[in-house]
Each structure stands twice: as structure tokens, then as C-alpha cells.
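Per your request, structure below.
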């Protein structure tokens, strides 16, 4: 199998994308060559997501697409669906050769070799420290804005969520391995480091006998003079410590933007979801953040149509959206996931009502986002320039401190620079500038 080609497809969250980068590096280091064409690759790796039914379903339709082409190839299903469905997948689809959980990617090359002895290979054990020890060595150049997984797993067990089952318990990487990786990334052009974790602000490690948290880690990373911007995602409200909140006013490199999913504006629903906070608790965090840095902007995730959500509960979510004025957000209709606590709850609300509620919420979120973007028209804002268009080299893409996407037409700009640009127009998604 040496020097054959591979294709990797990612379905999930940023951590899933980060893992796919690592898988790519592992395979390249073993002599495989990346092939961007799913149809002609010798090895196809599907890095799956199990968070909602739709994400999991997509996998099986993609395997069907691969199988339309007669070419003999190896199919590896890795990630969160692999972890959740385990050997059942071999029964569901005979063409799968390898099933590998998210904690064991480092075993992939060995499993490919072992196919010669045993035609079906499976590993779904939780051996997370081994994974990170190995992956720390598999460094890969990313971009101007680079992901760095600092923490994995979840101990929170929200009633609707598969992550504690697919990613296992919370685990934090060591400070030393993270600083080494940041140094590698910045030596290769990174200017922004995006710290990742399913509960990124629950990061907790020990260093020289001292307990360190995410705020200590951010301060350490900020000492690297090539790092211009730092972000972290996804945070849980109960882990928003006062130290972390304070850092948003004392550390210039930490961006004034926070993704802090609330899920619902009804304390009644939050209780059923086992989110471990109520709306007032959430509101107080936002108040503290705004008090120390009035510029800070917030984004969130929302679940619509959780079992038992009434019209009054939904109205409370709309009220919270109007109050906090989230400037970006993701919203989803509740999806019952096998094995989760909420999947056993009675759910009487028809899908048509849930769809209506989602539309109303999304319209509201969109108009707030447009209003926020409009306040930038005619004004100057700092943009970190991340990419250049390949088809038209006069166009560049970057982001403001508040994560807004900016398209810039310019003949006088460099990748990786923070450029102060004048915004000419906008819509709810993007800002536009000439310079
Ligand atoms: N750890 C993060 C969220 C990780 S999952 C947190 O606690 O906020 C990303 C998002 O997917 C969640 O915020 C939630 O909005 C959504 N999600 C998770 N499970 C879901 C389900 N069963 N149905 C619909 N959306 C879901
Ligand atoms: Fe899922 Fe809740 Fe853990 Fe987030 S905190 S990953 S929603 S169980
Ligand atoms: Fe999906 Fe797993 Fe991420 S379920 S959202 S890929 S942690």
C-alpha cells in the first residue's frame, strides 16, 4: 500500500477538521499522497460526525457514492459515528474496511497494513493521552489562522448530546506540547491561534506542580510575539471563570468575541437539558464581560423543539436573543440521538411547528447580524488577512476581531498582516472593502 493515494472528508466540528489535518499528516509521513478526488483515491477516510441525525446519515449516502465506482479501494470510517455505532457499521455496510474511533487515529497506518492479515479492522478504545503524545509529533503547517486542540471530551452529559459517548471524558493536553505546537505553527506563518475543545474553557492541566487553566495557557501563548490574535471555542457557561472573563480586558491579543452557547432562553428547558445553569446565570456572565470590555460581542448555539418546548419557552428564547443581540449564531432543530437521555422523552410537538420556530429565530438572528454589520459601513476596522482568491488574485479574505468575514479588493496587501480597512458595504454575512 506504500505510496498509494488517499482522500479525507470531514463532516463535523472544528475539532473534527483539526483531526483530519492530523490524519492527513500521519498518512503523508507514511508515504501516502493526498488525492482530492474521492473517485480515484486508493484509500477513502470518512471522518464522521454524530451530533445530529442528518450528519450521520450523510456518511452512508457518501459510501454509496464511492461504491458506484468499481475501483477496488480501502474505506476507513473514523470519528464520532465510528465510535457510536462501532462494529454494527460492518453489518450495515459491507464495503467498510476500517472502523476507528476519535481517540485512536494514530493507529490508522498500522491498521491499513494489518488488513492483509485480517480484512476488517476495528479500534474504538479511549486511549486519549497516547493519541496526543503521538499527534504532538505529527505537526502540520496550517494557515494564517490555525486550529489547536487543547482539550477533548466532555463530562457534562447534556441530555440531548452524544459527545460524552463519542469523545469520552474531559482530557487536557500538557502546556509544553501546546507551546511547542504554537511555536511550530507560528514558524510556519500562523498569526492567529484558535484554541479548540468540546469544553475548551474546562482546560485544566498541571505544569511544574502548578494547576493551570485556559487563562494561564492564553497568557503563555500571547508571549509568542508572532501570535497576533487568540480565540477559543467552544466554551461552556459554567466554566467561564472570573480570570478568563478578566483576560478579555487585560490581554490585547485575546479577541473581543466569544462563542458561548446558551441553547435555550427558557430556564425550564435548560433544566431538562441538564445544562447546569439557568438564564439568569448566563445573563450575569454576559453582564460581567460587557462590564470589563464593552466592545465584546457574543455568539451562541440554539436548539429548537427540545421535547416539551412550549410556545412560551420559545418566546423566552426570542426575548433573550433580543436582549443579548448575538452577532452570529448557529441554530438547529432538536435531533433525538440514540442512547441519549432525551431520546427517551415524549416529544409531542409536530416537526412543522419546530420548523416554523426555527425560521422565526433564524430571521431574528439574521436581522441582528445585519444591523451589527451595518454599523461598520464607512468605518475602519482591523482585518487579519487570511487568504487570497486563487481565481482572482486582487481579492483577499480576512476577519475582523468580531469574526465577521471581510472580502477586500486590493493590490497592496499581504497575507498574515492586520490591515486597517474602510468598509464600503455589507450584508448579513459579509463586509466588503477596497484598499
Ligand atoms: N460543547 C458545546 C457544544 C458542542 S455540540 C456546548 O456545550 O455548548 C455543538 C452544538 O450542536 C451544540 O451547541 C448544540 O446546539 C448542537 N447539538 C448538540 N446535540 C444536538 C442534538 N441532539 N440536536 C440538535 N442540536 C444538537
Ligand atoms: Fe454536548 Fe453538553 Fe458536553 Fe457540550 S457540554 S459537548 S452540549 S454534553
Ligand atoms: Fe460531531 Fe463529534 Fe464534533 S459528534 S460535532 S464531530 S465532537
Amino acid at each position: 500500500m506504500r505510496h498509494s493515494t488517499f482522500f479525507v472528508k470531514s463532516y463535523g466540528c472544528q475539532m473534527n477538521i483539526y483531526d483530519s489535518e492530523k490524519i492527513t499528516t500521519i498518512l503523508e509521513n507514511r508515504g501516502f499522497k493526498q488525492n482530492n478526488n474521492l473517485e480515484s483515491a486508493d484509500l477513502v477516510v470518512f471522518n464522521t460526525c454524530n451530533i445530529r441525525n442528518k450528519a450521520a446519515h450523510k456518511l452512508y449516502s457518501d459510501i454509496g457514492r464511492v461504491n458506484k465506482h468499481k475501483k477496488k479501494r480501502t474505506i476507513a470510517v473514523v470519528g464520532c459515528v465510528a465510535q457510536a455505532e462501532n462494529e454494527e457499521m460492518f453489518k450495515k455496510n459491507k464495503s467498510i474496511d476500517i472502523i476507528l474511533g476519535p481517540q485512536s487515529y494514530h493507529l490508522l497506518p498500522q491498521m491499513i497494513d494489518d488488513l492483509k492479515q485480517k480484512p476488517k479492522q476495528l479500534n474504538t478504545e479511549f486511549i486519549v493521552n497516547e493519541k496526543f503524545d503521538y499527534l504532538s509529533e505529527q505537526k502540520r503547517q496550517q494557515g494564517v489562522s490555525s486550529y489547536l486542540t487543547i482539550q477533548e471530551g466532555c463530562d457534562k452529559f447534556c441530555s440531548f448530546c452524544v459527545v460524552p459517548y463519542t469523545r469520552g471524558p474531559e482530557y487536557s493536553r500538557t502546556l509544553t506540547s501546546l507551546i511547542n505546537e504554537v511555536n511550530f505553527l507560528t514558524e510556519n506563518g500562523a498569526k492567529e491561534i484558535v484554541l479548540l475543545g468540546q469544553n475548551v474553557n474546562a482546560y485544566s492541566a498541571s505544569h511544574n506542580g502548578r494547576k493551570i487553566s485556559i487563562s494561564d495557557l492564553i497568557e503563555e501563548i500571547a508571549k509568542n510575539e508572532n501570535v497576533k490574535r487568540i480565540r477559543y471555542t467552544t466554551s461552556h457557561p459554567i466554566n467561564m471563570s472570573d480570570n478568563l472573563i478578566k483576560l478579555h480586558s487585560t490581554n490585547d491579543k485575546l479577541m473581543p468575541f466569544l462563542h458561548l452557547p446558551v441553547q435555550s432562553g427558557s430556564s425550564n428547558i435548560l433544566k431538562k437539558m441538564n445544562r447546569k445553569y439557568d438564564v439568569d446565570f448566563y445573563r450575569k456572565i454576559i453582564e460581567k464581560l460587557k462590564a470589563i470590555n464593552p466592545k465584546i460581542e457574543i455568539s451562541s448555539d440554539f436548539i429548537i423543539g427540545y421535547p416539551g418546548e412550549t410556545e412560551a419557552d420559545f418566546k423566552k428564547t426570542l426575548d433573550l436573543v433580543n436582549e443579548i443581540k448575538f452577532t452570529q449564531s448557529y441554530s438547529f432543530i432538536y435531533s433525538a440521538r440514540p442512547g441519549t437521555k432525551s431520546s427517551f422523552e415524549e416529544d409531542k410537538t409536530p416537526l412543522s411547528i419546530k420548523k416554523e420556530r426555527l425560521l422565526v429565530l433564524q430571521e431574528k438572528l439574521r436581522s441582528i447580524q445585519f444591523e451589527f454589520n451595518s454599523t461598520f459601513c464607512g468605518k475602519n476596522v482591523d482585518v487579519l488577512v487570511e487568504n487570497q482568491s486563487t481565481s482572482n488574485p486582487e481579492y483577499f479574505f480576512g476577519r475582523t476581531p468580531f469574526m465577521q468575514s471581510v472580502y477586500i479588493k486590493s493590490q497592496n496587501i499581504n497575507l498574515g498582516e492586520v490591515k486597517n480597512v474602510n468598509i464600503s458595504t455589507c450584508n448579513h454575512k459579509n463586509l466588503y472593502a477596497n484598499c
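The chain is about 35% helix and 25% strand.

Regards,
D.
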